[in-house]
Amino acid sequence: MAKLWDKGYELDAVVERFTVGRDHILDRELIPADAMASIAHARMLARVGIIPDGEAAAIERELRTIAADALRREIAIERADEDGHTVIEARLIERLGDAGKKVHTGRSRNDQVTAATRLYTRAALLDISNAGRRLVELLLRRAQEEARTVMPGRTHLQIAMLSTFGLWLASWAEQLLDDLELLAAVADLNDRSPLGSAASYGTPLPLDREFVADLLGFRGIQNNVLAVQHSRGVLDGRIAEALAGVSTTLGRMAQDLIIFSLPEIGYVRLPEDLCSGSSIMPQKRNPDILELLRARAGTVDGYATQCRNVVRSLPSGYNRDLQDTKEPLMRALAAVEESLIVSETLVSRLTPDRDRMRGALNSEVFATDYAYRLVEEGVPFREAYRRAAAEYRDQAMPDPDEALDRRRSTGTPGTLNLEAARDRLAAVGTRSQAIANRHDAAVAALLGEGVTLRPQSE
Ligand code: ARG
Q: How many CB atoms lie within 10 A of CB 316?
């Protein structure tokens, strides 16, 4: 297939392998999104009178077939094709002749790849937000069930004060809500149309950028055409960073569960079918799922670092370096979505051993409570602290349920205030739904009812 920039010479094979990199593989994921953006672009070209309506309609029909083929994974991109944009344009020209040769009018691959990436990312972030919110909801539901399941809370990993399994579960729900709110902020930055920025400086054609943005369901255009190119890579990095926040939370939750499920501790049990065995030690049931959730936090953070370092000192305007932020972004999206889905299985199937948790309580856990009892009797805190340090071992352990009832201020083990988290969950859901409504309507209008932008996983 001829390259888009073909001027009658062959690229050196070693250079071609190097410059194409993994684009011919990655772009397979982006073809439906690329086709969608091209349909909007063609409709706009017809509207402003640059191409005839009939040609735009023919381009649109062919692009819909291309998207459908790509979703079934029936479109191949060879290294010699260079990228998905080339394959799409070549097929349009093969099927439509001159009409196909007009689709690239007023566009560069630079705004084309950014548009496709943003649409693909928008779809992926919506799926991630859905999975994230399902997990938060599950954590909150389980927190409610375990609101009175007393256990030792730890600091420095050592036994500290009275806690509940409910407090622990809800804490991860609330941390995930922080992560999802940050993700919603980067989703808003992503949700702007780059089209019309062309190579970095716009074009002298009367392109209607707002019309294209509207067709694609973006909340608007990204205004400055040069800023569009500057945000590529930077935005990829910010999205990956926000995703790393999610995977960090999941990794830390997993770390606690590794400890909680140690046979010596035994606060929770993992069902057998979630654990792998050892090839040598017959007795082993290993929490590999938890360890890999922990590892993914570092991996995803690495993707963010990769994006940040690629753009760190680029001069203004498009630079080919930006191609190298595509893969880390796509990998970060895939890794976090998978981690959320796995975490949902994990959290739904954990069995707490309530007796083991309760049995781990001892007078140490209540040393601080003892100091506060003295405070309530009028002893100044610092004095009560010293007395409690000397005396707590000799005190009868208080009734944990009564001790729990005494914790009445908001957000404490006795008063989880799960409603506050539920309100935030609803708000983050509303925000995501607003994007989803625009996204789904645009995909349906341009590619067809029931079409998604993400090819089935291989
Ligand atoms: N694969 C390229 C990228 O991701 C497509 C854009 C190529 N543009 C160019 N001017 N060579 O950036």
A: 10
Q: Is the pTM of this model over 0.90?
A: yes
Whether residue 367 sits in one domain with residue 327: no
The total of structural domains in the chain comes to 3
85 is catalytic: no
Residue of 121, 115, 172 whose CA lies nearest to 343: 172
Would residue 448 count as lying in a domain?
no
Arithmetic mean of pLDDT, 61-67: 97
**Catalytic residue among 156, 279, 409, 457, which?**
156
Q: What is the mean pLDDT of the chain?
A: 96
Atom nearest to 109 CA in ligand 1 = 6
pLDDT digits (tens, 9 = 90+) for 206-221: 999 999 999 999 999 9
Assess if residue 452 is contained within a domain. Answer: no
Q: Which domain holds residue 37?
A: 13-102
Residues 314 and 390 both lie in one domain: no
The encoded tokens of residue 192 equal 């702007």
Q: What is the pLDDT of residue 178?
A: 98
Per residue in 305-328, pLDDT (tens digit) is: 999 999 999 999 999 999 999 999
pLDDT in tens, 131-158: 999 999 999 999 999 999 999 999 999 9
Same domain, yes or no: 275 and 173: yes
Burial status of residue 351 (CB atoms within 10 A of its CB: 0-12, 13-18, 19 or more): exposed
CA angle, 326 then 332 then 338, to 5° = 135
Q: Is position 325 within any domain?
A: yes
| Residue 300 · residue 335 · CB < 8 Å | yes
Ligand 1 atom with the shortest distance to the CA of 27? 1
Same domain, 119 and 96: no
Which residue, by CA, sits nearest to atom 5 of ligand 1?
A: 109
Angle CA 99–101–104, to nearest 5: 110
Same domain (yes/no): 305, 390:
no
**Domain of 276: which CATH number?**
1.20.200.10
Nearest of 118, 239, 232 to residue 182 by alpha carbon? 239
Alpha helix stretches (DSSP H) within 268-365:
288-311, 326-349, 354-359
Ligand 1 surroundings by CB, under 6 angstroms:
23, 83, 109-110, 113, 318, 320, 322-323, 326
pLDDT for the residue numbered 277:
78
Answer yes or no: do 298 and 352 share one domain. yes
CA distance 183 to 179: 6
pLDDT reading at 458 higher than 70: no
